[in-house]
Design goal:
Elements: E1 5-10, H1 13-22, E2 26-29, H2 42-51, E3 56-59, H3 71-86, E4 91-94, H4 105-113, E5 120-122, H5 132-142, E6 146-149, H6 156-170, E7 175-178, H7 186-191, E8 198-200, E9 204-208, E10 229-233, H8 235-251
Parallel strand pairs: 1-2, 1-8, 2-3, 3-4, 4-5, 5-6, 6-7
Antiparallel strand pairs: 9-10
Helix pairs in contact: 4-5, 5-6
């Protein structure tokens, strides 16, 4: 059996470097934390490929909001994917839906074809579909290697029964990657299925900004605290996951 892996979504250079330093096995590289992740800059990937050795899966998402994309947006996704592939991306994370909420198989297959065999994760767009079980089958049909889900709920805790159901249904056909408010306590729950191979957890924290001048009443984003704090990785949270997951790895 393979070692259980911990994946963390990261939105800053600092978080990516610390994730690798603290024991995360793979990062999901994104931009725009407030929108749940969009395509990061080319420069970010180039820099990180020189600094860290763990795999970097790159988010391909042209904007926040829904997952129903125009022809123009899909073309941008293809361009981004191809450019990021040439610059060393180890895998990609994306998901495209139709207006009725079902998986857009054709669009997803077109994107996967451009990866030249690199692994792809269908992200939490699955949680916005009318039937997670039918969507799972469509995602498998497309050729994705894994699917990130919180079971159709806002958090893994709320949707854990569905996540577990999907793991059993998927068996070894695809990796079900629980994510969305995961905690170390979820590891034994999902491990009981016999199909838990990877876990997605942000392990995030905010550190105070080094900036000491705050213009009065200036708002640079919808988050009033964004100018005063920086998103990064909490070593204690990573350690807590590692302690539980490494116990399982020792039993393998």
């Amino acid at each position: 059996m393979m070692r259980m892996l911990l994946e963390a979504p990261v939105f800053t250079i600092e978080a990516a470097i610390k994730a690798a330093e603290f024991g995360v096995d793979r990062i999901e590289l994104c931009a725009d934390f407030g929108e749940g992740g969009t395509t990061p800059s080319i420069g970010t990937l180039i820099y990180l490929k020189k600094k860290i050795s763990i795999p970097i899966f790159v988010m391909i998402r042209p904007r926040g909001g829904d997952f129903v994309y125009s022809d123009e947006e899909l073309e941008i996704m293809k361009i981004d994917l191809q450019m990021l592939k040439t610059l060393g991306a180890d895998g990609f994370v994306f998901g495209v839906l139709k207006a009725d909420g079902k998986v857009n198989i054709g669009a997803c297959e077109d994107l996967i074809q451009l990866t030249d065999g690199l692994p792809c994760t269908f992200h939490r767009a699955i949680d916005a579909t009318p039937s997670l079980e039918k969507s799972l089958e469509a995602i498998i049909e497309c050729g994705f290697r894994r699917v990130l889900t919180s079971g159709g709920s806002n958090t893994v805790e709320a949707g854990k029964e569905m996540v577990k159901k999907l793991m059993v249904r998927a068996a070894d056909r695809i990796v079900i990657l629980p994510g969305g408010g995961t905690s170390p306590e979820h590891v034994p729950y999902f491990e009981s299925t016999g199909y838990l191979k990877e876990l997605h957890a942000s392990c995030k924290m905010f550190r105070p900004s080094k900036n000491r001048f705050y213009p009065k009443d200036l708002k640079l984003s919808t988050d009033p605290n964004s100018y005063k704090q920086i998103l990064t990785i909490d070593p204690d949270k990573v350690a807590a996951f590692r302690a539980v997951m490494d116990q399982k790895n020792e039993r393998i």
